[in-house]
């Protein structure tokens, strides 16, 4: 218990004095995970809508791939992203290894299937005749998709929260493709691992509490938006 209280006090001190290193890695965590979540949203929502509404050969196979992707082990993602981005890999010319860009790519691979899968599930729960009713009212394809997104917005917001939660505390892939470089790719999750390896458990506990607060703050904001939308509906 003394160790836990030491970590709580350390976290309080870091927040009160405005520790510069803490601020830097927290902002970097938000930038990387936020960007990855946004890209996953832009990729996953259309895929989820397509799988939830359209009927085409191989749809069940694609849907099963997406559902399987929701459980991708982060270390496996980190391994394959590293292989593709390594100096002699297919995309080695990008020189993206050990950069925030590589971490964003890896986190996108982790989050996108979750966003797509939950969006697909949400769309499939809508009234099957809703799409036909929208078309009967004269809406074009893009207008129809936008209206369906509005109808499934609660599920999509849940997908965003799931995607962000999956990547903001992710360690394996981030360590493999980012390298935990101080001042460049060190985020809260990888900083915690570093402090544990150094035996600084009080600092690790402090960073873990700050990471939990960050994840809760973002999720709380999205939850307020979700519940507000529900009341409006």
List the main descriptive attributes of the protein structure presented here.
233 residues; 11 helices; MetI-like fold; mainly alpha
Structure, described:
The model has no long low-confidence stretch (mean pLDDT 84). This protein is mainly α and 233 residues long. It has helices spanning 2-17, 20-53, 59-69, 74-85, 100-124, 130-136, 141-151, 153-168, 172-178, 188-198, 201-232. The chain has one domain (2-232): MetI-like fold, CATH 1.10.3720.
In short:
The protein has helices spanning 2-17, 20-53, 59-69, 74-85, 100-124, 130-136, 141-151, 153-168, 172-178, 188-198, 201-232.
- Quaternary structure type: single chain
Distance separating the two termini: 47 Å
How big a fraction of the residues is strand?
under 5%
**Outline type:** globular
The total domain count is 1
Arithmetic mean pLDDT: 84
Q: What's the tally of helices?
A: 11
The CATH architecture would be Orthogonal Bundle
* Number of strand elements: 0
Whole-angstrom Rg: 20 Å
Q: Mind telling me the CATH superfamily name?
A: MetI-like
Q: Approximately how much helix is present in the residues? A: over 70%
Largest sheet: none
What name is given to the CATH topology?
Answer: MetI-like fold
CATH hierarchy class name = Mainly Alpha
- The secondary-structure class comes to mainly alpha
Q: Which sequence of SSEs, written as H and E, runs from N to C?
A: HHHHHHHHHHH
Task: Return residue spans where pLDDT drops below 50 for at least 5 consecutive residues.
Answer: none
